[in-house]
């Protein structure tokens, strides 16, 4: 457990480094209480003034900003902050932040993938097991009181020893691969570049990966290049018994196409933690027993959030002491 009290604290209130919290008024986080003794936190969401006047007023003093969860951070907002050098994203995905503007301005970014990787990977594997073994289906069957009156004969798929393709071998994808190796699965992956010293086989494109896989697990970031990376051709290549799992972002998949494939039985099943228009989920999926739906909660454990708080604290502390940062997100 992190102990923030033990960390060296800046001396007087005036000495506290200024950090801007960027959050929607609806997003609260215990981070505020944790950081308050160590940093002078500016929170426009708590101010009666419009955010733009609040930001203009404090613009010059803000060198670091914490972006809470998926609060959109546009070029327009960034332009109000000419002294900004660091964005600490309290999320693994950073598709809600204008990366092009950050790249042009040389703003450094850290994200939370080191804090979230293990729990997100557990969730991906849990979805795969659930889709293959129909665990949620069985749960619904028991709760509906059907067991005493009829037998549950829904046949699932074996999950062990399957060929699994991971799309995006960052920290989360790597943890997924490690876990599935223990189930006897053979692991291959696709990412922008082949990773040195990784024991999994590399496919330079997703179509080839899908052709060689029984299940695809999406763990990559959402970018212009990965938007709808899972399309009709990829789903066809995955085949009628193929399973798709998504713990990345909804728009990695062309969702309308996926729904059609599932309704026609042209794919074996799907485990989805993320959706194109969250929290709206295509209602057609509600009736399908080979689909497991999860409300974007792959990272939500108390341990993950504790690790996130520690990471945010450590990065801010390091930044203001000119020390190396952890979990830097490379903007390309
Ligand atoms: O989806 C969760 C995250 O990006 O942290």
Protein traits:
332 residues; alpha/beta; seven-stranded parallel beta sheet; five-stranded parallel beta sheet; 11 helices; binds glyoxylic acid
Task: Explain what the structure shows.
- The chain is an alpha/beta fold.
- It has eleven helices and twelve strands.
- It has helices at 31-35, 51-58, 75-79, 99-105, 113-133, 135-143, 171-181, 206-211, 232-238, 255-264, 302-320, and strands at residues 18-22, 40-42, 64-68, 86-90, 108-110, 163-167, 186-190, 201-202, 215-218, 243-246, 269-272, 291-293.
- Strands 8-7-6-9-10-11-12 form a seven-stranded parallel sheet.
- It is elongated.
- The structure holds glyoxylic acid.
- Glyoxylic acid (GLV) is lined by residues 91-93, 112, 116, 299.
- Glyoxylic acid binds next to loops.
Short structural description:
With 332 residues, this protein is α/β, with parallel strands linked by helices. Helix content is 33%, strand content 14%.
Sequence-ordered SSE layout with sheet pairings:
Blueprint (H helix, E strand, L loop, with lengths): L17 E5 L8 H5 L4 E3 L8 H8 L5 E5 L6 H5 L6 E5 L8 H7 L2 E3 L2 H21 L1 H9 L19 E5 L3 H11 L4 E5 L10 E2 L3 H6 L3 E4 L13 H7 L4 E4 L8 H10 L4 E4 L18 E3 L8 H19 L12
Parallel strand pairs: 1-2, 1-3, 3-4, 4-5, 6-7, 6-9, 7-8, 9-10, 10-11, 11-12
The structure holds glyoxylic acid.
Percent of residues in helices comes to 25-40%
Ligand identities: glyoxylic acid
Biggest β-sheet, characterized? 7 strands, parallel
Termini Cα gap: 34 Å
Number of helices, counting only DSSP H or I runs of 4 residues or more: 11
| Outline type | elongated
Please, what is the average pLDDT? 94
